Amino acid sequence: MSNQTVAERGAQTSGAAKKIKVIVTMPAYNAAKTLIKTWKEIDKDLVNEIILVDDCSKDDTVAVASSLPIKVIRHPHNVGYGGNQKTGYAEALRDGADVVIMLHPDYQYDPLKIPEMVAPIVRGEADIVLGSRFLGGGALKGGMPMYKFVANRFLTTCQNWVLGTNISEFHTGYRAYSRQFLETVPFLRNSLAFVFDAEILCQAAYFGFRIAEIGVETRYFAEASSINFWNSVKYGLGVLNTLVKFVGAKAGLIKCDLFRP
Fold first, then answer.
1. Entry pTM
2. Separation of alpha carbons 60 and 168, rounded Å
3. Which CATH number does the domain 6-259 belong to among 3.40.640.10, 3.30.300.10, 3.90.550.10, 3.30.70.380?
């Protein structure tokens, strides 16, 4: 394979000369069975570093990760999905990332899509890129449960209406962020739970960052991570609560740390 860097590839399409450092962060919990398969499909010519943050898994995730040429960080206790992301993003910024990709190590999202995730940021067209399961209609074909499909459509409609956006999916776990974005939004104040994902996109809208999307296929199978029904309900209520905070902060009616620079 070519040793061409992502910056050089981006320069061919955008004229950019700046070298770009791309770091993949993997928020891991019980991913021992799928980690190697995920790692093998990451473009090592494009990605400069891979950071796995293990949220106190009960399986051999840390042992498997330690056998690979990646950086492994282990939480001594389970802090939650949002807390896992905070650790990963902070470490990536410390390591000099210009673009940070969140890729789940459960092989649910296609690692081969990483170049497409990076490209809009390298070209200066976006600050965030979301891998949408709904562009191309792949969500149900990939096995998404119907109740999650309906809830996703309802919440995404509410979010677009409140935030003034036109995004096909807010709830994907496949994301790319620019360094400028992560250094600007106060993501360390966000929830430790799953609603972190909704909060950071509300912050993107609040601070005026540009969001792009690409279509991705997903796989639903026994080893793929997924929140259960009641946690899904809790997540949905958290999304709606975040929208209320956004409206209040935007109107100057409340002071909310999520939207304080």
1. 0.89
2. 36
3. 3.90.550.10
